[in-house]
């Protein structure tokens, strides 16, 4: 059975929601947390924070070559992400599901035009960290031959209303009525991931 995954990113991990179509809209097969870095290696979790000389909110001496820290950290982040998303696809295949499409919920912040400006602003650093995780997920899915759609959180529901021909209240009621098949969180980000996954599959089916 063809399925789709919706991805909601965090720094160092993502929420992944796997859905399949059903007569009643969609069925949530599972939700899970997938790490994109090694908790014992800050470069893979927060390469931009390390490069800027941040440890949490505390300032520490920055490394002599920030660019090399970011480059090294993102390469390791990519390896972690690819390995763990491959495991997700293999697990779903063992259950009889083929991941046909994936959706990444895009962030809203605009990244500065230079690395120097990024590293000079804590807000910019967080935007860069989010972009890095999303790009690692995108590259990994493409390497695994999964079609990827980037969807904007702010316009996600408007797009769903249009495709489903449902008003906001009806769509919200449907989302609240579905639950993952296994006991797992069902928060706002999981609901957003479910809608995004469904939309990514709809777009894939149109082509």
Description:
With 207 residues, this protein is of the alpha/beta class. The chain contains eight helices and seven strands, in the order E-E-E-H-H-E-E-H-E-H-H-E-H-H-H. It has a single domain (2-206), classed as Ribonuclease H-like superfamily/Ribonuclease H (Nucleotidyltransferase, domain 5, 2-Layer Sandwich). It has helices at residues 42-45, 47-52, 66-94, 115-119, 122-143, 156-164, 168-177, 188-206; strands spanning 2-9, 13-22, 25-35, 54-55, 58-59, 98-106, 147-152. Strands 3-2-1-6-7 form a five-stranded mixed sheet. A two-stranded antiparallel ribbon has the order 4-5. The longest helix has 29 residues, at 66-94. The protein starts with a strand and ends with a helix.
Concise summary:
This protein is α/β, with parallel strands linked by helices and 207 residues long.
List the helices and strands and how they pair.
Layout: E1 2-9, E2 13-22, E3 25-35, H1 42-45, H2 47-52, E4 54-55, E5 58-59, H3 66-94, E6 98-106, H4 115-119, H5 122-143, E7 147-152, H6 156-164, H7 168-177, H8 188-206
Parallel strand pairs: 1-6, 6-7
Antiparallel strand pairs: 1-2, 2-3, 4-5
